[in-house]
Amino acid sequence: MDVFEAIKKRRSIRAFEKDAVSPECVNRLVDAARWAPSAGNIQPWEFVVVRRRETKRKLAEASGGQSFVEEAPVVIVVCADENRSSQGYGVRGRALYCIQDTAAAIQNINLAACSQGLGTCWVGAFDEGDAKEILKIPEGIRPVAIIPVGYPAESPSPRRTRPLNQIVHSEIF
Ligand SMILES: Cc1cc2nc3c(=O)[nH]c(=O)nc-3n(C[C@H](O)[C@H](O)[C@H](O)COP(=O)(O)O)c2cc1C
């Protein structure tokens, strides 16, 4: 699939078929993530792949009851290593670059999944402390997104996208 096609076709998927997602498929998604750009090529990302029902249930609970997190066959939790980024870039690395780097990796996962016929949703509304405890994430590593992955059981209609002429400024803002 052409990159523009994937960018435009991708939608958040919150309902999944029961079909399993193979470890090879998941590896391809994480492989796509690690090719994202990162400040100073620090690559501050870490990934936790979750298949156990009980763990997914707890993550759904930590996400304020977003039950599709539990229903997805597999969930990838994308984390940012704040220490790696701050070693390179101090406060800006910790507060900004590690989140930007990780966000780029997250979107690579979303686009790679779409190109393979898989659905994902970027879940950012969750209790970080709870997620850290559930997944035994060490200090200095911040969970940034929970990404449920599975074969789509819904096809959302096209969404409203702000038109170019409202968002592009020529020369000055
Ligand atoms: C940082 C971020 C956090 C998000 N958190 C959630 C979330 O907690 N739950 C959810 O259902 N969708 C979440 N979304 C998905 C957005 O709702 C979705 O991307 C937006 O409505 C546009 O729809 P689309 O992804 O289908 O294009 C999040 C997206 C981003 C980028």
Features:
globular, binds flavin mononucleotide
- Helix tally equals 7
Bound heterogens, unique: flavin mononucleotide
Question: Largest sheet at a glance?
Answer: 4 strands, antiparallel
Helix content: 40-55%
Number of strand segments: 4
Low-confidence stretches: none
Sheet with the most strands: spatial strand order: 1-2-4-3
Shape: globular
Strand residues, percent: 15-25%
Summarize the structure.
With 173 residues, the chain is α+β, with helices and mostly antiparallel strands. The chain has helices at residues 3-9, 23-33, 53-62, 68-71, 82-115, 128-135, 164-167, and strands spanning 45-50, 74-81, 119-120, 141-150. The radius of gyration is 17 Å and the shape is globular.
Question: Could you please describe the fold and organization of this structure?
Answer:
This protein is α+β, with helices and mostly antiparallel strands and 173 residues long. The radius of gyration is 17 Å and the shape is globular. The N and C termini lie far apart (35 Å). Bound molecules: flavin mononucleotide. The site of flavin mononucleotide has 11 residues, from loops.
